[in-house]
Amino acid sequence: MARILMIVAHPDDIDFGSGGSVAKWIAEGDTVDYCIVTDGDAGGFDEAVGRGEMATLRRKEQRAAADVYGVGEIDWLGYPDGRLYVTHELRRDLSRVIRKRRPDRAVVPSPTRNLRSTYGSHPDHIAAGEASMCAIYPDARNPFAHPELLADEGLEAWTVPETWIANPGEGADRYLDITDTIDLKIEALRAHESQTGHMTDLAERMQMWGYSQAKSAGWCDDGTPADQRRYAEGFLVLDTK
Q1: Is there a contact between 184 and 64 (Cβ–Cβ < 8 Å)?
Q2: Which residues does 84 contact at the CB level (< 8 Å), separation at least 6?
Q3: Handedness of CA 66, 71, 76, 80 (dihedral sign)
Q4: Angle separating helix axes 51-69 and 182-190, nearest 10 degrees
Q5: By the 8 A CB rule, do 68 and 187 touch?
Q6: Between 98 and which of 55, 136, 140, 199 could a Cys-Cys bridge form, CB atoms 3.0 to 4.6 Å apart?
Q7: Would you call 33 helix, strand, or coil by DSSP?
Q8: What pLDDT score was predicted for residue 115?
Q9: How many angstroms separate the CA atoms of 20 and 29, rounded?
Q10: What is the C-alpha separation between 187 and 185, in angstroms, rounded?
Q11: Residue 100: exposed, middle, or buried by beta-carbon count in 10 A (0-12, 13-18, 19+)?
Q12: Burial class, 169, CB count within 10 angstroms (exposed 0-12 / middle 13-18 / buried 19+)
């Protein structure tokens, strides 16, 4: 049984990118917690909804989505959506969560821009990924980094043994079969109604994306019949002991 910490920039990032894997891990007995850096207040499509109201709504939606899988705790850092940068304060706040949750595995966004994926290269995603990598090494494991975390909060240094980069594009070296959990992924995404309510083809989008990942893994090909297709999510796995 592993303790897994998912770190992302926005509510719904986990469900779009790694929801099938979260469902799989929890079904296998692992513990999964979330750290979400922003409240997603710049999201949505309804101009009548105030930004403060949107942030509150998105927290509720993310909790509902997490409950579909059985996720444990959600740490919200409350940074402004669309204005995320790698700062000393963000590295400290992520280090705090890592020391508090003490994960065996951290799953984080890619810290590098993928020129073939506009969505995957949202600036907030890249900043969250880079800050997470800085928190994993060297900050969270170094007792002399952010000394207030130990002196004022009693949070001992913690080394994350394994870090998984979510959705690394062509850099993936491990694929998880989410064929049995893709329906839960879609159900969780529907809980983000302010973001997905307009997507009449949400299920088809997620199935095609999962199918493309399964093809990258070599489990399917373009000729695989629809009723025999498998679905996957890809990661780049790093040894960060």
Answers
A1: no
A2: 9, 37, 38, 90, 123, 124, 127, 128
A3: negative
A4: 160
A5: yes
A6: 140
A7: strand
A8: 85
A9: 15
A10: 5
A11: middle
A12: middle
- How far, in Å, CA of 98 to CA of 80, rounded? 21
* DSSP structure class, residue 80: P
Taking 70 as the pLDDT cut, the residues of the chain under it are: 44-46, 50
Sign of CA dihedral 124, 71, 183, 53: negative
What angle do the packed helices 13-27 and 51-69 form, to 10 degrees?
Answer: 20
Kindly report the CATH number assigned to the domain that includes residue 49. 3.40.50.10320
Average pLDDT, the chain: 95
Question: Do 111 and 133 contact (CB within 8 A), yes or no?
Answer: yes
Q: What is the pLDDT of residues 167-215, one digit of tens each?
A: 887 789 999 999 999 999 999 999 999 999 999 999 999 999 999 999 9
Structure tokens at 88: 């000393």
The identity of residue 193, as a single letter, is: E
Q: Which domain holds residue 85?
A: 3-239
What's the Rg (C-alpha) of the chain?
18
User: Given the structure tokens 């509720």, which residue do they identify?
Assistant: 60
Q: Please, are residues 134 and 92 in contact by the beta-carbon 8 Å criterion?
A: no
Token reading at 119? 């969505």
Q: Which two tokens stand for residue 73?
A: 């705790």
Main-chain dihedrals φ then ψ at residue 116, nearest 5 degrees? -95, 0
d(C-alpha 19, C-alpha 14), whole Å = 6
Tell me the one-letter amino acid at 56: T
Number of separate domains in the chain: 1
Q: What is the CB neighbour count within 10 angstroms for residue 59? A: 17
| Residues present in the chain in total | 241
